[in-house]
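Co-fold these.
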Amino acid sequence: MGAEMITIVNIVLLTMLCFSAVAIMLLRHLFAVAALTGAFSLLSAGLLVALDAVDVAFTEAAVGGGISTVLMLGTLALTQRREHRPPRFSLPALLVVIATGGALIYATSDMPAYGDPNAPALQHVVPVYIEGSRNDIGVPNIVTSILASYRGYDTLGEVAVIFTAGIGVMFLLGRRREDEDDEGMVRHGPGNDPESSEPEETAS
Amino acid sequence: MLDAILAHYNYWLIIILMMIGLYIVISRGNLVKKIVGLNIFQTSVFLLYITLAKVTGGTAPILTGKPEIFSNPLPHVLILTAIVVGIATTALGFALVVRIRESYGSIEEDDILAAERAEEEIAVKEALS
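Predicted complex below.
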């Protein structure tokens, strides 16, 4: 029990993640891809729990499994449900991927062993944060105390990024409604013939 | 040998996952599929960071009053931020896809490039006549 069990859980979950990624690559039906993306997020949330990152697992399950799947389903409703081209093999892409992956795997030989308690990343500021959240901040969850206190500016920057992205989405999709009001129905609804590859005249 | 494999197998599987995501981004022409590939890549980067934070015999970094070994909480904080930023960029990407579909009537890369070329030819002809 203990370390061996966690090792087995890790290997099983990572293998399942790889299989669902390959399935996402091969499937042409985008609804199935959306469902598999949700399953992928759930599996990675499970793996995060096995790796002791419970806060990250909550966020991944809620944001990755929930919101991102909803966003993707909304996009499919507004665009199309099937990929038109059959999956094709691409040799240059494969070469790029093999070269990058090979370089990364070669680089892992310099990394500290998995679960090493003497890893350099654990020696520097982390003991200070742990002691500080015990003695100074008084929040039992160390992740919370770092997020909200020691690294509060990170969270402020995150809010700025989300705000910017929200404004971007508003400008991209909000304009459309004004166009519709001005010129009547010009939008290509999802019910239009999805097989027509004819580029239609732009409305704007 | 087995020790070396056990020390790094997690990294290798995560890198394989990362490369599947990269292959989807490069080789698939459908824009929704490309964003999904980008998400797979992103999730595997998150997993790589969290794997680095794991300490054997450690627990989740929550104080219970007893002396304990904790996994490194700092990567957890960074990845928490990255997940939320990731969903913001994904939302922006999907909004762009919807907008492209409205302008070009397609979300396949080939069709969009063909439409671009046709538009350019029309513009050149109009400029010449």
